[in-house]
Amino acid sequence: MSQKISGVKGMNDLLPGELGGDMAPVETWQFIERAAREVFSRFGYGEIRTPMVEDTALFVRSVGEETDIVGKEMYTFEDKGGRSLSLRPEGTAPAVRAYIEHSVLNQEPLTRWYYVGPMFRYERMKTGRYRQFFQIGAEALGSKEAAQDVELMDMVVQLLEQVGLKDVSLNLNSLGDDACRPAYHQKLVDYLKSHREQLCEDCQRRLETNPMRVLDCKNEKCQAIVKAAPNILEFLCEPCKAHFADVRRKLDVLGIRYVVNPQIVRGLDYYTRTTFEFIAAHPALGTASTVGGGGRYDKLLKALGGPDVPAVGFALGLDRLTLLLKEGGQKYSAPPDLFVAVADEGSADAAFALASKLRHEGLKVEFDTRGGSLKSQMKRADKTKARFTLVLGQAERESGKGQLKPMAGGEPIAVSLSEVAQAVRAAGQGTAGQG
Ligand code: ATP
Ligand code: MG
Q1: Pairing mode of beta strands 311-317, 259-260
Q2: What share of the chain is helix, strand, coil (3-state, %, to 5)?
């Protein structure tokens, strides 16, 4: 016997229905993706699709060499031409690269994009933390105003509302900018150094390389120390303070509730001013309870050799969202409208053709391609939860008439075989044949 080959650790198969085990059924994924496309298009965001692989330098320069992502989580390899490539660990850098490469600024002053797709990070896995995971994200390029930050947060709020996710809290912060952050940085380093011994090993290293990331550490001991750390908001310069106040005021204007949390620093180096996270209250996710976050990155475009364009964006973790909505997963897939069964061998082709024709006409139709007895077909019909069955045999073929049998019980409906679709629709709750 040949040896079985397994999928790559930390990379999941997403399967329909209940086949996928711990992962949410693919229908839940589709449901959220559909909702996102719908909500984002209401806000005027167009979809972009960038490659899964980029020049490694793109992430080193944008995400930052000292971040966990670039420092230890990236899938980097050399292609046959000797180039260093990386599987994308996030979506902002590729979007910005594309924006610069296509000279988008010359074509429009304000650009709104979203993306949906897999990201790759070599992480320690657990529930809600994988090595291939999916993000839904959006970027708005060209506006420095608080209204743009708030528009993006509003978009997330509306998406979460549309998919029915409750108990998510918006945490808001500002990281200041080049004018005010250095002074804060110094104060923070001084404070953390005086507690160096109590920090976890990672944070002792971060203290040297990327001290702000200590604020974001999930280790309990570090969190205790961070609680008493200097507060970035007390160090903001006047323009940053004004921007932050404007963001808060506009959130109020829209009636969006939030909490100010000076520990929201985000994982990437390029953030300036506004940062935010949406945190779910769900015990199963533990430290993986942040469903998404984002922030402003006014300096990134220039740093990547592009024009000086202010920008803000967010990314949501689709895996985590699907886990939070998993319980309801099944409800996102509609059962078949109709199961067409074959009563006798001579009717097999006619039934097969009828099923095909009804699909042409927009019905969702099941047909058992394995053939088999009428009894075994009816068992299958039960399993698929089809709303109606129609048995096709010699009598039906000769009369041109059949019976639509409601699977949930009730009187059969006599139909002409040429008008099955109409009859199913007329008998339905208005869903048959749509979507
Ligand atoms: P965390 O602090 O949980 O590690 P992060 O700051 O690394 O998150 P971001 O880079 O901001 O995450 O990505 C945005 C969202 O993408 C996260 O809030 C999360 O929902 C999701 N995400 C990030 N990494 C993973 C992963 N390895 N597996 C599943 N989802 C992830
Ligand atoms: Mg992370």
Answers
A1: unpaired
A2: 45, 20, 35
Kindly give the distance from the C-alpha atom of residue 241 to the centroid of ligand 1, in angstroms, as a whole number: 28
Among 328, 348, 378, identify where a domain stops. 328
Ligand showing the shortest atom-to-Cα distance for residue 133: 1
CA angle, 256 then 257 then 259, to 5°: 135
Q: How many Å lie between the centroid of ligand 2 and the Cα of residue 326?
A: 22
Same domain, 108 and 160: yes
Round to whole Å and give the CA distance between 278 and 351: 52
323 lines ligand 1 (CB under 6 A): no
Which domain covers residue 275, as residue numbers?
A: 17-170+260-328
Cα angle: 362, vertex 364, 365; to 5 degrees: 115
| In a shared domain, residues 283 and 421 | no
Average pLDDT of span 392-406 = 97
Mutation to probe ligand 1, out of 320, 321, 322, 323 (largest number of atoms < 8 A from CB) = 320
Looking at the structure of the chain, the number of domains it has is 2
- How far, CA to CA in Å, does 101 sit from each of 279, 296, 306, 353, 367? 34, 21, 8, 51, 50
- Quick one: DSSP state of residue 218? -
> What pLDDT was estimated at residue 433?
42
324 and 356 assigned to the same domain: no
Predicted confidence (pLDDT) at residue 428 exceeds the cutoff of 90: no
Residue whose entry in the numeric block shows the structure tokens 């059962």:
335
User: Does any ligand 1 atom lie closer than 6 A to the CB of residue 12?
Assistant: no
Structure tokens, 125: 């896995």
135 lines ligand 1 (CB under 6 A): yes
Q: Which of 117-131, 152-166, 319-333, 361-375 bottoms out in mean pLDDT, i.e. has the lowest?
A: 319-333
354-398 pLDDT, tens digit per residue, is: 999 999 999 999 999 999 999 999 999 999 999 999 999 999 999
* CATH number of the domain where residue 356 is located: 3.40.50.800
Supply the DSSP symbol for 111: E
Tokens of 315: 């990314």
Closest-CA residue to 240 (of 274, 277, 268)? 274
Please report, for residues 33, 342, 364, the alpha-carbon distance to residue 435 in angstroms, rounded to integers and kept in the order given: 15, 27, 9
Sequence-ordered list of residues with C-beta below 8 angstroms from that of 152, at least 6 positions apart, any chain: 138, 140, 294, 312, 313, 314
306/318 Cα distance (integer angstroms): 30
Q: Is residue 204 part of a domain?
A: no
Reduced to 3 states (helix: H, G, I; strand: E, B; else coil), residue 404 is strand
Cβ 303 vs Cβ 270: under 8 Å: yes
Q: Same domain for 285 and 413?
A: no
* Complete DSSP assignment for 126-137: BTTB-SEEEEEE
